[in-house]
Design brief:
The chain has 16 helices and 41 strands. Helix 4 (89-97) packs antiparallel against helix 5. Helices cover 24% and strands 34% of the residues. Strands 14-13-10-11-12-15-22-20 form an 8-stranded antiparallel sheet. It is of the alpha+beta class and 699 residues long. The chain has 6 domains: 4-103, Rossmann fold (3-Layer(aba) Sandwich); 132-201, ATP-grasp fold, A domain (Dna Ligase, domain 1, 2-Layer Sandwich), CATH 3.30.1490.20; 205-331, D-amino Acid Aminotransferase, Chain A, domain 1, CATH 3.30.470.20; 335-459, ATP-grasp fold, B domain (D-amino Acid Aminotransferase, Chain A, domain 1, 2-Layer Sandwich); 464-618, Glycoprotein, Type 4 Pilin (2-Layer Sandwich), CATH 3.30.700; 628-698, OB fold (Dihydrolipoamide Acetyltransferase, E2P) (Beta Barrel), CATH 2.40.50.
Length: 699
């Protein structure tokens, strides 16, 4: 076994490898960029060496610098993790040439199986079924379009060197092919440094099922059964589970055998995943080879959970020349496991990646990098910053149970106990998926999210009254904490000669509301059974603000409110974040945090947010200039689609921004004429930077 390894990666996977290495007594060396100077993976490794700038090309993609650091620190091997250099054949060869062990397959195996086109030709010669498509070297755009036309639409354009869902575009009609090809190639260059593509028939109602395989240097091979990764957005996985629902023993053995034969064909060594597209028919399922990922997968923990095997430990053992610890007959499926990828993104805004600080990051009871009922693998801590330079994943939540139904319930409960505040995230969205009929009943395919979109997007699981009461209670509890124990400083509403009344202004789901509390007092003896000594009560009236109108004389009439809720509320706050509420005949346990006037509310039923406006904080503010268009995220300008003086229509593409290795198209918010471009292609922009100005009056 090695005495020291260098981990050529960052974030969760670097922490994951370091955890197993530490358990085996292997020292670890971390490398880090400017953005990761204070990162978790830097702290958990035994040594940490500065690598370069924040952009991957200036740090984690600098193979020569990584090899030099490995030799400088006395590391005997390099673990590439996933992403970055993990499937770079030249880097694997350079490690070998430098006398270092690359913890993964040989450079020849990566070249043969890492390139989608080459691997499909190899599988075709081996008799593995392939989905119709063009996998050749002719990359002329018109030729590729002709191939797509002959295959029949829809087709899928895929970066030949791609992975992780990047460099893929679905084309519905011939007229869109060239534009989507260009976009795919740009993303492929950014992510993989190679813009070669292949074109395939896009299978209808497909499932994505993959086989985890392992080989050693002694010619031994095993598979560790299958994972279903069908639930995807933008061709990237959201939920993964093992074993795959509906796969019988015969199909499992057939796919496992095909995967092992694929590995044998290239003398594969180490961990790998053979991915299949499964076409679902009324009475059968047919599988087709899609690609092989010549590395450890993000979703490997679900395979660990059902087999009891530490796959990173196996990687280290095999790379050190040892035989596989188990044979195929030693491996068996135990129970069911599901992994949820928790990401910094906004599902309601086309999964736009988000950046910012993890202001609050609370997790359910769990293990870390260990096989247990609830496991969380992450590379961040509360207070860390999610930057625009890397992947948007915050953590992986993995559960294991005897049955799929029990695993679903356990995952839903664990997600309900996860609290993230400070940036948009998909925790609530993941719970919505779990509770759809399609997922709960295992009616799976890669279009599940689109099919169930009415139940997944723009959901508000908490009622308006719950949100308003929690926001007000949060404010009162915060004030009580700041004002100390002096009874004359406490906001208890005491008045010698009049009732106490206090008003609040709120915004929820883009609608303005007013709230008024009165008769605020400690609960009566009759109410004391509801809670402890801190129980308080008030009367609440919520009004929905009606927009200003004009009378017959064109004179503005003041905005009016329509009462939408009125009732008596009781509450008990143990601190500014934890509240027990009694409203509408129900007791509700709620938690809340405030960030920039937004109150984030969490209950067992779900989470939502409402803005409690601080009126004094907005005195003197002016409205943003009409016609400006701001970047919705930090990133890099790829291209402008318009020039100064161009007339544009609402919804027309204006600019392309690249963030977290994914391209996003910015469209015109209104008709108008482009008055000014404020950046150039290649410039970095911050969240909220004005990109260009549109003069609507000149349209």
């Amino acid at each position: 076994m090695f005495s020291k390894i260098l981990i050529a990666n960052r974030g969760e996977i670097a922490c994951r490898v370091a955890a197993t290495a530490k358990r085996l007594g292997v020292s670890t060396v971390a490398v880090y960029s400017d953005a990761d100077r204070e990162a978790k993976h830097v702290a958990v490794c035994d040594e940490a060496i500065y690598l370069g700038g924040s952009a991957p090309k200036d740090s984690y993609l600098k193979g020569d610098a990584i090899i030099a650091i490995a030799k400088q620190t006395g590391a005997q091997a390099i673990h590439p993790g996933y992403g970055f250099l993990s499937e770079n054949a030249d880097f694997a060869q350079a490690c070998q040439d430098a006398g270092l062990v690359f913890i993964g397959p040989s450079a020849d195996a990566i070249r043969a199986m890492g390139g989608k086109s080459e691997s499909k030709r190899l599988m075709e010669s081996a008799g593995v079924p392939l989905i119709p498509g063009y996998h050749g070297d002719n990359q002329d755009a018109k030729f590729l379009q002709q191939q797509a036309d002959s295959i029949g639409y829809p087709v899928l354009i895929k970066a030949s060197a791609g992975g992780g869902g990047k460099g893929m575009r679905i084309v519905e009609q011939s007229s869109d092919f060239i534009d989507l090809l260009d976009s795919c190639r740009r993303e492929a260059i950014t992510s993989f440094g190679n813009d070669q593509v292949l074109v395939e028939k896009y299978a209808l109602k497909p499932r994505h099922i993959e086989i985890q395989i392992f080989g050693d240097t002694h010619g031994n091979y095993v598979h560790l059964f299958e994972r279903d990764c069908s639930v995807q957005r933008r061709h990237q996985k959201v939920l993964e589970e093992a074993p795959a629902p509906g796969v019988d023993t015969a199909m499992r053995e057939a796919m496992g055998t095909a995967a092992i034969e694929a590995a044998r064909a290239v003398d594969y060594v180490g961990a790998g995943t053979v991915e299949f597209i499964v076409e679902q028919r009324e009475d059968s399922m047919n599988f087709y080879f899609m690609e092989m990922n010549t590395r450890l997968q993000v979703e490997h923990p679900v395979s660990e959970a059902i087999t009891g095997v530490d796959l990173v430990e196996w990687q280290l053992l095999v790379a050190a020349g040892q035989s596989l610890p188990k044979t195929q007959d030693d491996l068996a499926i135990n129970g069911h496991a599901i992994e949820a990828r928790i990401c910094a993104e906004n599902p309601d805004n086309n999964f736009l990646p988000a950046t910012g600080t993890l202001f609050t990051y609370q997790k359910p009871e769990h293990s870390t990098f260990n096989i247990t009922d609830v496991r969380i693998d992450d590379g961040v801590r509360e207070g860390d910053v999610i930057s625009p330079f890397y992947d948007s994943m915050i953590a992986k939540l993995i559960v294991h149970a005897p049955t799929r139904e029990q695993a679903l319930a356990r995952l839903d409960r664990a997600l309900a106990q996860t609290r993230i505040v400070g940036l948009p995230n998909n925790v609530a969205f993941l719970r919505y998926i779990l509770n759809t009929d399609s997922f709960s009943k295992a009616n799976l395919d890669t279009a599940l999210i689109e099919r169930e979109q009415d139940k997944l997007f723009d959901q508000h699981p908490l009622g308006l009254s719950t949100l308003v009461v929690t926001a007000i209670t949060q404010q009162l509890a915060s004030e009580a904490t700041m004002q100390g124990s002096d009874p004359f400083n406490k906001p208890t509403g005491f008045r010698a000669y009049s009732d106490y009344t206090r008003s609040f202004s709120l915004v929820y789901d883009e609608q303005a509301y007013s709230a008024r509390i009165s008769n605020w007092h400690n609960a009566s003896c009759a109410d004391s059974k509801k809670g402890g000594d801190n129980l308080s009560s008030f009367t609440l009236v919520i009004g929905k603000e009606i927009a200003n109108t004009q009378d017959d004389s064109n004179i503005n009439v003041a905005a009016q409110t329509e009462t939408v809720y009125e009732g008596q509320i009781s509450y008990d706050s143990s601190d500014a974040h934890n509240h027990t509420l009694w409203l509408e005949g129900a007791r509700i346990n709620a938690q809340s945090w405030v960030n920039n006037e937004t109150v984030y509310v969490f209950t067992d039923s779900g989470r939502d947010e409402i803005t409690l406006i601080d009126i004094m904080a907005h005195v003197g503010e002016d409205t943003a200039a009409v016609g400006s268009l701001k970047s919705p995220m930090p990133g890099q300008v790829v291209a402008f689609k318009v020039a100064v003086g161009d007339t544009v229509k609402k919804g027309e593409p204006l600019a392309v921004i690249e963030a977290m290795k994914i391209e996003h198209t910015i469209t015109a918010p209104t008709d108008g004429v482009v008055a000014e471009l404020l950046f150039a292609a290649g410039d970095l922009v911050a969240d909220g930077d004005e990109l260009l100005r549109i003069d609507s009056e000149s349209a």
